[in-house]
Amino acid sequence: xxxDQNFEDIRCYxxxxxxxxxxxxxxxxxxxxxISTVYPLLPKEVLRKRLTSFHSSYEFQKEMVYPxxxxxEANMTKGIELNxxxxxxxxxxxxxxxxxxxxxxxxxxxxxxxxxxxMNTVEIAIGDNLLFLPWIKELVRVNKxxxxxxxxxxxxxxxxxxxLSSYIAFTLKEKNQSVWIAQRxxxxxxxxxxxxxxxxxMFSMQGLGSFIENIKELNICPLSISYEYDPCDFLKAKExxxxxxxxxxxxxxxxDLLNMKTGVMGYKGKVVYQITGTxxxxxxxxxxxxxxxxxxxxxxxxxxxxxxxxxxxxxxNNKIAYxxxxxxxxxxDEYTEVEKSDFEKYLNHQIAKIDLEIKDxxxxxxxxxxxxANPLINNIEALAK
Length: 385
Description:
single chain; 385 residues; alpha/beta; Glycerol-3-phosphate (1)-acyltransferase; 2 domains; seven-stranded mixed β-sheet
């Protein structure tokens, strides 16, 4: 048994802590301003009373977060699908590893769909770089999020990784609570989704067996997320040029906040979550094929990538972007000239939003095309294997 200890600085709140945490939050003016923006028709006193009535994270999510997710689905998407539940044993907990498009909504929409199915929501891994205000840290811990520490020294990274690995294992095994985590630190700005091997090394620290034995214990279930449109695509393209042109460029907390706001309130088109099932069988094959730990880690990362890539929902704009990026007509029979023209107008509109003093428009356009073409490029490769 893994004992619940030494997790105080990273864990989410337990249900018996929720009411007190919310009572602290309602006294924070910026938090109440955000909540009043989400629920503009409710007087602040009504909001305060409602917020302080909750006694569990799930209750808070169902009564406060889920209605806002319903609003976003109705107004900022063409609909959200969750597929693949038949691949799960709902009595078990899973470690969902997914590609990462949106800072907030990747995990939020997943939890929303689980609530609709009357399933328990997941605990969510979140980087502490996003917790730049104390009340944000308080809020995410109420919302079943645990903290992944960034920007540490080499020694601190090892200690932090061991603790994080133990916490994830504790959550899965002792709490029987599923976990969501992105396959890499930060979003893949060009949508070329790849699992970081360091993440898998961290997962394996919690066990006493071999790499494969330790990984198997976590019930890993890759999850593929597909957005038809990424409202942050122009911000990501802007960042690519800034990193190209400015030595040691690093985003500010204001940049992160803008990305969060844009991602939440921007139009996303169709959104599809595809649960792909566990990787137990393939892990056994990897164990048989190689006894080298480094090779097992590489093959496991490639396996997760293949699962995610093969299960993307491919949209018309992915096909148009593929042909435009590669200067081909491979998919030209699968979209109309009107659809192609509309996507070109969309790209021009997004480029126009980029507020750089000197805009390299051909470069920015190429980066936007890569964002929409890469899921299809990877999908083709994954399905060919």
